[in-house]
Fold this sequence. Notes:
By secondary structure, the protein is an alpha/beta fold.
Amino acid sequence: xxxxxxxxxxxxxxxxxxxxxxxxLPSNATDGTFVSPTVSLGYRFYRPSPTYKAVVLLFHGxxxxxxxxxxxxxxxxxxxxxxxxxxxxxxxYGWSSGEPSLSNLVADAExxxxxxxxxxxxxxxxPIILFG
Length: 132
């Protein structure tokens, strides 16, 4: 076990909270799950309109979950360049499976990046801005 995965470290580093897929879903958003052989990672995809020009792929801060970003999605939608927001929950957050660990963060992000074009309504031809 890595030092980063010791219970003392993870208990300080992570504060997951559950949230049911589809609960409090705004009309401009869809919920989904990226599924790998080892984990399921939940996401909420906020689309300002069918003609957005960029996507922010966001890995949120600690103690947050994808549904917390409804107001941020509204701000992005009002930009001169309408921007969609794809917020991914870490392991153990929202409706994602597993336990959060620092050693899995990069592998999970790489997996999500390889799967974003599977999101319903996702336009793979627009720029993707990674945040978080």
